């Protein structure tokens, strides 16, 4: 698997690795499929995790371990969406806004998780180059994927917050392609957020009395 970590090409003075490029292209495709509420978003996300795990395994244990968690959440998301299909008029999942209790729980989990993971990364420097921002991105990604699995519109907001830190961090660590992909993520997130927001309002419309459900 060492070939995955070889240079694919150079762009604007940045060295693009095969693993960085291929894994993130799959991740980008997964986000686009998530926008369309396609069940395929989760298998594609799983493949992205597998590629990045193979690239990191053996020399970046922390990064490889993070991909294991991402893959586990992808399996959970596939299971959730398989159970929830058909609830919208177009046969896909029906987006919804989280309750205030769910929002509070996710914010608390994100904060506690970021602190816990950052302390772990700090205690074992080999797991991460930048413990706090890396922990923030990792935990934020898990929270976003969980919210996506639940069909919550808030998952787009979580991705935006991840992007704010993810773009400069990836460029700083030499993962230029990841940085470029995160910029594209931002554009997709804005469009996806609008689409899910509108669809959640449609799903929330009450059925008038005497109108067939």
Short description:
The chain is mainly α. It contains 7 helices and 2 strands. The longest helix has 29 residues, at 176-204.
Verbal overview:
The chain has 213 residues and is mainly alpha-helical. 70% of the residues lie in helices and 4% in strands. It is built from seven helices and two strands. The chain has helices at 18-35, 41-56, 61-84, 100-123, 131-149, 154-172, 176-204; strands at residues 7-11, 14-17. It has a two-stranded antiparallel ribbon with strand order 1-2. Strand 1 and strand 2 (14-17) form a beta hairpin. Helix 3 packs parallel to helix 5 (131-149) and helix 6 packs antiparallel against helix 7 (176-204). The longest helix has 29 residues, at 176-204. The protein starts with 6 loop residues before the first strand and ends in a 9-residue tail after the last helix. Mean pLDDT is 81; it is low at 205-213.
């Amino acid at each position: 698997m060492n070939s995955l970590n070889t240079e694919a090409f150079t762009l604007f003075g940045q060295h693009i690795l095969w693993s960085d490029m291929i894994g993130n292209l799959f991740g980008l495709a997964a986000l686009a499929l998530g926008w369309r509420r396609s069940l395929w978003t989760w298998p594609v996300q799983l493949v992205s995790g597998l590629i990045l795990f193979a690239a990191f395994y053996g020399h970046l244990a922390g990064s490889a371990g993070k991909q294991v968690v991402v893959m586990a959440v992808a399996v959970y998301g596939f299971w959730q969406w398989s159970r929830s299909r058909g609830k919208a008029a177009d046969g896909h999942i029906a987006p919804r806004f989280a309750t205030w209790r769910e929002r509070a729980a996710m914010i608390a989990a994100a904060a506690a998780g970021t602190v816990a993971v950052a302390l772990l990364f700090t205690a074992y420097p080999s797991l991460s180059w930048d413990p706090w921002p890396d922990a923030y991105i990792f935990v934020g990604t898990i929270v976003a994927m969980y919210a996506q699995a639940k069909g919550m519109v808030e998952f787009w907001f979580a991705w935006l917050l991840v992007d704010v830190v993810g773009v400069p961090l990836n460029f700083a660590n030499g993962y230029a392609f990841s940085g470029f992909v995160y910029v594209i993520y931002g554009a997709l997130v804005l469009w996806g957020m609008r689409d899910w927001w509108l669809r959640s309002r449609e799903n929330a419309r009450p059925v008038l009395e005497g109108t067939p459900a």
